Amino acid sequence: xxxxxxVMAEAxxxxxxxxxxxxxxxHVAVNGQVVTELGTKVxxxxxxxxxGVPIKREPLxxxxxxxxxxxxxxxxxxxxRRTVVDILKDDDVEERVYPVGRLDYDTTGILLLTNDxxxxxxxxxxxxxxxKTYIAKVKGVLSNHDLQKLRQGVIVDGRKTREAxxxxxxxxxxxxxxxxRLTIHEGHYHQVKRMLKAVGHPVIKxxxxxxxxxxxxxxxxxxxxxxxxxxxxxxxxxxN
Length: 240
Fold this sequence. Notes:
Elements: E1 2-3, H1 4-10, H2 16-24, E2 28-30, E3 33-34, E4 41-42, E5 48-50, E6 53-54, E7 62-67, H3 84-90, E8 98-99, E9 108-114, H4 117-124, E10 132-139, H5 144-152, E11 155-156, E12 159-160, E13 165-171, E14 177-184, H6 191-198, E15 203-211, E16 214-215, E17 225-227, H7 230-237
Parallel strand pairs: 9-15
Antiparallel strand pairs: 1-4, 2-3, 2-5, 5-6, 7-9, 7-17, 8-9, 10-14, 10-15, 11-12, 13-14, 15-16
Helix pairs in contact: 1-2
Protein name: Pseudouridine synthase
Family: Belongs to the pseudouridine synthase RsuA family.
Domain RNA-binding S4: 2-65
């Protein structure tokens, strides 16, 4: 048996917290009976409805996408822009998956999409500190002092960032730009861009090359994707 709000989240109805609000407000029924108790548990044979509409319990799916530039990391976009979910739908993926976290519109790289609400919430929770590695092309050339500041943490919006790993990868011949690898364990808004700007090197291009144990090996740029292997899903669920 599983908690009702978890089943609703995994069915793509809403996040677990939003599902709890629906339950408390009397919008949810189990086998025809309205329930408002958040501790309610259901089995696979129970029929769950939201405002009279049965929820569809889909099999849990996990997809890894090499996100292209110019695509938004959301399931729907009010401005009509192409989304990461649209990329999978073009290849007839029917499950209502959504991205775990976000990459900026102009940022490329690794992105996980799933309909497993429990795992998504776990991976996005700050306490799990999922390691994420980025390659950034920045203005100017980072000095050893700049790299050390990034490792120790910099002040962004009045808050010091956590310790990070940083390495200078390449310097342009004209020394007008350079490439750096930055590994962080946080996921605040525009964090990598703000960290690099804080040391005087605004980002020109940004690419995320790994997420926890996952990388982009075998996935071409421009929106290629694949389903995660069972051992990869297990690795994500075992992160702590």
